[in-house]
Amino acid sequence: MAGVMHKFLIASMFMWILPVAILYGFNHNLLPGSTTLSPHSLTLLSGFLAVVSVNIVIVFYICMALKEPADKHKPDAAFLAEAKDSVSKLTKGATSSDDHALKKQE
User: Fold this and answer.
1) Distances from the Cα of 39 to the Cαs of 23, 26, 43, 58, 68, in angstroms?
2) Which GO terms describe its cellular component (predicted)?
3) DSSP state at residue 68
4) Cβ atoms 62, 68 nearer than 8 A
5) Cα 89 from chain centre
6) N or C: which end of the chain has fewer CB within 10 A?
7) How far apart are CA 15 and CA 58, in angstroms?
8) Percent of the chain beyond pLDDT 70?
9) CA torsion, points 75, 76, 77, 78, in degrees to nearest 10?
10) CA 30 to CA 42: how far, in whole Å?
11) Cα–chain-centroid distance for residue 16?
12) Are 53 and 88 in contact (CB under 8 A)?
């Protein structure tokens, strides 16, 4: 579980740091070629690249999650039994309320 949280925290940090760094670099003329752009183009390009950087981080995070072995994480048996009971109660309650609604319509 600690490995999953570690990966999540790193991905979250990059989702904040990369867009801010890109916007800062463009707005303070730290990136080559950004001085020749008009203010409108500078804003559009920096915003677009910031959004693309966040999407790239999300794709990398998803790829890392898909590479983890599926048998590594086993659900808690007590939680699983409680969830199944809860779902079965909800489905039984839904059918009885549907029957009540049908009787009302008739």
Assistant:
1) 13, 10, 6, 29, 44
2) endoplasmic reticulum membrane; endoplasmic reticulum-Golgi intermediate compartment membrane; ER to Golgi transport vesicle membrane
3) S
4) no
5) 31
6) C
7) 8
8) 82
9) -140
10) 12
11) 14
12) no
How far apart (Å, rounded) are the C-alpha atoms in residues 106 and 104? 5
CB of 54 closer than 8 Å to CB of 15? yes
CA angle 25, 30, 35 (to 5 degrees): 105
**Is residue 3 over pLDDT 80?**
no
Q: Residue-wise over 78-94: b if at least 16 C-beta within 10 A, else e?
A: eeeeeeeeeeeeeeeee
**Which of the four pLDDT bands, split at 50, 70 and 90, describes residue 56?**
very high
